[in-house]
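Researcher: Good morning. I'm working through a list of sequences from a screen, and I'd like to move beyond sequence-only analysis. For each chain I'm collecting a predicted structure so we can compare shapes side by side. This is the next one on the list. No need for commentary yet; just the structure.
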Amino acid sequence: MQINEPVEAFLNIVRLLLLLLLFAYSIGAATEPYSLELVKKAKEGDALSQNNLGFCLENGNGVEKNVSNAFQWYLKAANNGQVEGQFNLGRCYASGIGTEIDEAECSKWAFKAAEAGHKDAQVIIAQDFAFRGGENNLEEAVKWFKKAAEQGQKTAEFNLGAAYLMGQGVQKDEKEAVRWLTKSSAQNVALAQYNLGFCYFNGLGVDKDEKEAFKWCLKAAEQGNDKGQFSVANCYYNGTGVPKDTDLAVKYYKKAAKRGNLEAQLVLAALYKDGKLVEKDENECLIYWQLAADQGNPVAEMAVAISYWKKQENEKAAKWVKKAVDHKLPAALAMLGRMTIDGSGVPKDEAQGLKLIQQSADQNDPYGLYELGRCYQTGVGVQADPKEAEKYYLKAASFGSPPASYQLGLQYALEKNNAEAAKWLSIAATNNYEDAKWILGTMYGKGDGVKQDWDRAFQLLKSASDAGFDKADCDLGFAYLNGFGCEKDTDKAISLFSKASSKNDPQGLAMKGYCIYYGLGIQKDEAAGLDLIKKSSDLGCKDATALLQKISHP
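Model: Good morning. C-alpha cells for this chain:
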C-alpha cells in the first residue's frame, strides 16, 4: 500500500451543476457598506455602487434582504461594464437568485467577466471548457486556468498543476506541475497538497522525498481530504516518510473510510476480517464491507452477501449477490448458482443453478470451478461422476481455492491415499481452512500419511480450536492431557472436554467420562464417569464402546 493515484483535475459532472458549485465557492464581497449615499450613487448610475448595493440586498447587509432587487442592481452594474457585477449576475443566473436559472445567460456573463480579467470567472470558464472534453476544449481550459493562476487564484493553480502533471490540454511537464501545485498548496488547497505529496513520493518533477510526501499528504488529510487520509494511513502502515505506527494507520484509514474513501473501506474490512492491526471483529468487518458495497464495489457486495448467507438471512444474501452478478463478478455467479440449487433466498431450480455455476467455471473462477466439482460429486443437475468432480476440484485448487483443496484432501483420505490427502489438506490449512487444520492435526498425531509429529499436530489443533472450530477441542484436550506437543496441562484438558461434552459431543463425553472415572485432573467418581462413557457409546462413539469393554474386562 502506498500513496495512490493523482486526482483528476477535470471533473465529469453535470454542466449546470458545475457552474452552480463554482459560483457557490466564489461569492464576492461589497467594498462599501449599505448607506443612503450608496443608494444615491447607484441610482445616479455608478456601476460599482450598483454592484455593492446588489450585494447588500442579496445578503441583507444593513438592509432588508431582497434578492429580486439585488438581481436588478447586478444587472444594471453588469450592463454598465462593472466586472464584479457581471460575475455576480452570472451567479444569479446559475443559482436562481432573484431570477430563473438560465445556463446560457450564466455562461454569457461569466465569460464577459472572465474576458475583463475576473480571476474567479476565468476559473468557471476553464472548468466549463474542461467539462466539454476533447483536446481543443482542454487546451482552452488550460488557457483560462493559466490566466487565473497568474493572478494567484488558488483553484486555478491546482488545476493548472494537475493539467501539467497529466498532460491534459498542455504538454506534460512535471516540473511545471510541481511549481503550480506548490503555489496552490501554500494557499491550503487540499487536493493540491495531496497531489504534491504524490509527486514527492514518486519523484515526479522533483527529487523523490518520502518525508516531504508525507508532510503534504498530512496537510491534505488534516483538511479532511480522504485521499490524503488514505495515503497518510499507508505511510504509517509501511513506515514511509514517517516511523511505522499501526495505531495511527488504523486511525487514518477510519478517517478516510468515514469520508467515503472506497480503498480505505476495503482495507478496514480486510483488517477486521483477518484480525490484523485490530482485534478480529466480524461485525466491524461487515460495516466496512457494507460501506464499500453501497458504493457499488462488487467484491464488497459479494462479501456482504456471504455474511448474510452465513447468518441464514438468505433473501438479503440474494439481494447483494445479484448486485455483484450485475457487476460481472464471476464468483457471484457461482454463489447465486449454489443458492438457486438450494432454493436459498431464491426459487429452487437445479438446472438454472448449474447453468450459473458453469458460466462462472467457464471464466476459470476458483469458486465456480469448486461448485461445479460439488455438482459432479453429489450428482446435482448432472450425472454423479467422481472423476469429473476431481478434475474440477484440481483445477479450482490450482487457482487457489481452499475448499477445493479441502475436498481433495477428504477424497484422497477416503481412498486411503493419506500422503496425497495430507498434501491437499496442508494447502487448505495454510489458507486458514479450520476443518483442514483439524483433520491434518489428527493425521500428524497418528502419523497417517505423514511422519508423526505431535508438535505440528498441537499447533494445528490449537489454531483450529482458537478459531472456534469445536471439533478440534477434544483432540487438543487429548494433547494437553498427555503432554503431546505441549506442556502437560490436565486443567486445560478437562476444560476442553467439558466444553465439548456440554454440546453433547460423543468424543467429549467419552473423554470427560474417562477423566472422571480414573480421576485424571478431576475428582474421581467411577459412577459418574461410567454414565458419561455409556452416553457417548449410545451416541455411536467407538472409542467409548471400547473403553466400556476395557472397564468391564480389565
